[in-house]
Amino acid sequence: MQFMESRQCLQKPSNPFAEPKRCLNCSCRHIRTAHFVVSILLSIHNGGSRLGSLRNKAGSSKVQVKPKNLVKVEMPSATQEINVNETTGSLAMSVDSVINLDRGDPKVYEKFWLENGAAAAVEIPGWQKISYFSDLTNLCWFLEPDFAAEIRRLHRLVGNAVADHGRHIVVGTGSSQLFLASLFALSTAPEVAVACNGRPVPVVSSAPYFSYYPAATDLLKSGLFRWEGDACSFHAGSTPYIEVVCSPRNPDGSARTAIVKSCNGKLIHDLAYYWPQYTAITGAMDEDIMLFTVSKCTGHAGTRLGWALVKDAEVARRMTKFIEVNTIGVSKDSQYRAVRILKAVCDGYELEGAGESAKLFHFGRKVMARRWEKLREVLAANKVFGLMEFKKLHCEFMGKETLPLPAFAWLECGRDIEDCESFLRQKHKVLTRGGKDFGADGKHARVSMLGRDEDFDMFIQRLKAIRL
Amino acid sequence: MQFMESRQCLQKPSNPFAEPKRCLNCSCRHIRTAHFVVSILLSIHNGGSRLGSLRNKAGSSKVQVKPKNLVKVEMPSATQEINVNETTGSLAMSVDSVINLDRGDPKVYEKFWLENGAAAAVEIPGWQKISYFSDLTNLCWFLEPDFAAEIRRLHRLVGNAVADHGRHIVVGTGSSQLFLASLFALSTAPEVAVACNGRPVPVVSSAPYFSYYPAATDLLKSGLFRWEGDACSFHAGSTPYIEVVCSPRNPDGSARTAIVKSCNGKLIHDLAYYWPQYTAITGAMDEDIMLFTVSKCTGHAGTRLGWALVKDAEVARRMTKFIEVNTIGVSKDSQYRAVRILKAVCDGYELEGAGESAKLFHFGRKVMARRWEKLREVLAANKVFGLMEFKKLHCEFMGKETLPLPAFAWLECGRDIEDCESFLRQKHKVLTRGGKDFGADGKHARVSMLGRDEDFDMFIQRLKAIRL
């Protein structure tokens, strides 16, 4: 895999408000970000928590949004009523609606699956999938063999990772569980345990890093591992550490490699977004631990499925052990369904006669390209926010040069706005995730580009209306 | 709920080899068991690990069982070949087969669902259940409203727990995840955190306790909570602790209440087996945190779904937060399917014209009664093992007196056998879980009563053949 930037810490100062500064312990230039380990209860914001803080009245066709006290958010119009669909909790959009672009909920794919849903439909009779076990002959005994086969087929189709040649597959309840399983597996390796001598293994990632990493790492105050923050300011000594490499990176979409130069590091590659709709596939990744998730590949976040491709059998075995103790395996129903979903994706490219509309990654690129174009257009007009610029790279899957179209926009506020997230929430009723959750400064905010069309279009309307 | 024994530590010495001894810190009599916190990697045995240690050769219609190094088990016939179904990994039974009764894999229910499977069948089109969110208006935002409704309906039908009247439902990836979520929620309560002043909260349960509790509690060496072992030997001071009350208790099937007498305790009630097929429903439980699982209620272990009924909103909120960070919610596909499964169970009792064969709990009792009868018969004949005796109690659901028919048999070896688990495994190729994993002595072993008929019948044959 080639990378767009050889100097990994460089976050391109594409907007005029950011000045590049020198990294503390590596030779590259970057925008220095606050090393900020957020508290667990505040770092993971969800729409429920945020929306829950809106006070409202129950009406005839309106249901009450219960207050959530963990994340206290004051809204300008605290007594407003919110229209909520009773069964799904999704909001009916209006010019006054709160737009939730905080979590990367991939509803953008709904349209594709409405058209191609029949191919991915699954029927499960009552007597099927009763047992805990999927395959006693496999190291990961709760991995459905058919799911493993479709995962390998998909990677062969896309060419984004080596999944054959003896690589082990470990399935997880989303790649979130696999992230924790990886931390467990790496920190309990015999040589690591000896070298750390009872101290938790430091875990780092280059900032801005995915806000989930610190929250998940420190949730239970584990004695095995501990969040240490930005990889750029981490001083590797003679003891082991774990570096998480997220590429393309959540939140900013940049391609990354490991930052810390040391022979004591263990790497986790989070490749959730290394799919052709988001970025150029420049080669098949072949790292020790590579994490993927169905959510960001096909859009089925509710299925809660991820998979890890793992080189070392002992690491895969310990990851399996973690999931065995954490949740005694992974939903078979989800795996059963995911078989059909991944099959539909592959068939869309490999079956003769499959039309253009059956090609998921092409659908994804088309929608994302339109959205990014609209976003850049409106930001160029109002001059309030800065955005990274990306270069085209040759995508082996698409067979041409393609521009990165990240799943999130990493906005940077200019002018006098110090807190981008508050500004968008309080003034414009747009929920985003603030930069500090990612180890960056408050001038940044992450905005999901994966919502439904109506959410995205409304967001663009709100941005258009901003006049400072 | 009434209990069979008012003296909670009394494990009835129904076999002649066990002498009752006095409990260390409570006034009741019980068989003293070793306080043994097992290591994680050894405490959770699964069929895969055990079977993996059998060396074998790949043949034309046989697949190789890969060696698992975590649990080293030497078998008498180490070069034997094993017939393994390639897709499910289940073993074709023969007089020489290894019988896996270690995990409580509830395949006993397959027969019921083969007959009633149509009522519980579910079809999921490709476009459904894409979002992370199930219901933004609910505290547990990833709980499907239809699933919550069927859970409440089921509890009203069975009368085993109060699920209405403002009780919160938190869904988990099996009750295993909910156990961890409960530990997190209780140990991070503001008053507990202050009282513990940075020290982990001790977690106890009366021995023999479910082997999962110590393994899960100590897996990540959490700074929030720590396994402390047998509740009977726990000295409650002035600081908080958590007691897990499992009733009917896994592994021995006895009904339990809390052991430790102190006002500083927080309780988790694990009621996985408080269903009419296993025990008399003597009343609706109404505890602070009550855990249930689909696995042991309907048999769908592969669905990996559990639920907690929680009184306090803040506790439920913190449990939700744990699951949010651990796995970002729970499979919607599983919940969608479970709606149909629980509906089929309730319909089997509530719909006019539903036949006898549609009554799950009656099916369960019938099969379990036959198995327990066979087991007691063969054990009475060979006089090698002891078993607890149970008393009949009035079951409000069945409307008559019923005998407990636990999901596990808690065997105690007599004579000169010091290690019941090894004896059954090495001499008779029956995989069970040894007493030490449960904080008891090696003379005990837990045997699943929930396997398929052929496994159970073969087990009975092996027991019959034992001559010492």
UniProtKB/TrEMBL annotation, chains A, B:
Protein name: Alliinase C-terminal domain-containing protein
Cofactor requirement: pyridoxal 5'-phosphate
Biological process annotations from GO: amino acid metabolic process
InterPro entries (UniProt xref): Alliinase_C (IPR006948), Alliinase_N_sf (IPR037029), Ethylene_sulfur-biosynth (IPR050478), PyrdxlP-dep_Trfase (IPR015424), PyrdxlP-dep_Trfase_major (IPR015421), PyrdxlP-dep_Trfase_small (IPR015422)
Pfam families in alphabetical order: Alliinase_C (PF04864)
Position of the signal peptide: none
GO molecular function: carbon-sulfur lyase activity; transaminase activity
Keyword annotations of the record: Pyridoxal phosphate
Source organism per UniProt: Vanilla planifolia (Vanilla)
Keyword Thylakoid applies: no
